[in-house]
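Case study.
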Amino acid sequence: MGKALIIGCGGVASVAIHKCCQNSDVFTEICIASRTKSKCDALKAKLDGGATKITTAQVNADNVDELITLIETVKPDVVLNLALPYQDLTIMDACLATKTNYVDTANYEPIDTAKFEYKWQWDYHERFEKAGITALLGSGFDPGVTGVFSAYAMKHQFDEINYIDILDANAGDHGYPFATNFNPEINIREVSANGSYWEEGEWIETKPMEIKRVYNFPEIGEKDMYLLHHEELESLGQNIKGIKRIRFFMTFGESYLTHLKCLENVGMTSIEPIEFDGKMIVPLQFLAAVLPDPSTLGPRTKGKTNIGCIFRGKKDGQDKTYYLYNVCDHQKCYQEVGSQAISYTTGVPAMIGAMMVMTGEWQKPGVYNIEEFDPDPFMEALNKWGLPWQESFDPELVD
Ligand code: NDP
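After joint prediction, the assembly is written out as follows.
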C-alpha cells in the first residue's frame, strides 16, 4: 500500500515500528530516521525478514533543511513524528515544503517553557489546507485514544456531552525506587507543572498535585489519582458539543511523589539553564540522563494500565453516563514487542493514526486533532491491533 517515514527511535517509536511491520499490507515500506542511527539499525536488524521493507537514516530533526532532504529522498506517504515535542514545528515545516502528510503524538513544546498547548500547531492549519496535506495531531493514547473515545461517545451514545473525566492509571511496578515510564524530561515537565481543568469555557488553575481523588479502577483496584493539566483538554473543550467541564487525572504512588518532591526541592526538575563547570546545563535534562531509560523498563514492569474516559451528558432528553476504557498488561506487551505498556499504549495508536492517513480513510487538508475525524475505523483498529476497549454504563463517578 504505502511508505511511512518514522522520525525518532525511542520507546514509543519502537512499538509503532513493530506494529507497522505486523501490518505489512498497509506499511509495505518504512524508513526509520533518528538522531542516533545505530538505534535505528539495531531495530531494523531485529525486524528484518518480514514483508515490510525497512531502511534507516540519520537526521537531526531540529534542522528543517536536513528533514526536507530526507523526505525528498524517502518520498513517504506520511511522516510519523515520534521524536520529542520540541521537533514538531521543524517536522511540520519540512512536511509543508515537501507536501507530505504529518502525524504526531504530542503537542509542540518550546524548550524553555512547559506549556502543553496547541496554538503553535493550529497556526499551520491554513498552510496545510492550501498545500492539500493532512496533519493529524495527538495520535497516542492520551492525547489520542481519549479523543477517539470522545468522538465515538458523541457519535453513538449522546446528543450532548457535558462532563468528561479522563482517568489514566498505571498499576505497573518496575522495581526501581524512581523511574519514569516515558521520556523523563517530558514526563517530569508534565507532572511538576501547575494542574488545570476546563470549566464553562475557562481554565481553572491548581497547584501541582493539589486535587487528589481515590478511584476503584476496573481490573486494577483502588488507586490515588491527581488532577493534571493535559493537552487534550484544550482541543476537546473546543470540539465536543455541549461540554461544561473536562478534567484529567493520573495515578501516582507515594514513593514516586516523595522522590519528585525531593528532586523539586533541590532544584533538579528546573528547566532554567544553570552554569556548571563553565558550561550551561538544564537541571532536568541532567536528571533525565541519570534516570533509567524508559525503553529498558519492559522486562521489569509487571501489572496493568487502565486508561479511559467517563462521559456524562444527555441522550433523548435523559441523563446518561458512559465509561470507555482499555486495560493493558505490561508483561503481555513486553512478550509481544519488547516494551512496557506505556510505550505500547502510545505506539499502537501512532501506527493506527499513520495507517488512517495513509489509506486515505482520514484525509482532510489542514491541521486537525484526532477527535475531528470519524472514530469508527480507529475504534475497530484498536480492537484488531492490541488495544481492545471495554464499556460500562454504570461506572463509579469522580466527585
Ligand atoms: P524517547 O526519548 O524514548 O525517544 C525519543 C526519540 O527521539 C529518540 O530516539 C531520540 O533520539 C529522538 N530524537 C530526539 N531529538 C531528536 C532530534 N533532534 N532529531 C532526531 N531525533 C531526535 O521518547 P518516547 O519514545 O518515550 O516518546 C516519544 C514521543 O511520544 C514524545 O513526544 C512523547 O511526548 C510522546 N508520548 C505521547 C504519549 C501519548 O499518549 N500521547 C505518551 C507517551 C509519550 P536519541 O535516541 O538520539 O536520543
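Observations recorded in class. Residues 28 and 118 are 32 Å apart (CA to CA). The longest strand covers residues 304-315. We will return to this complex in the next lecture.
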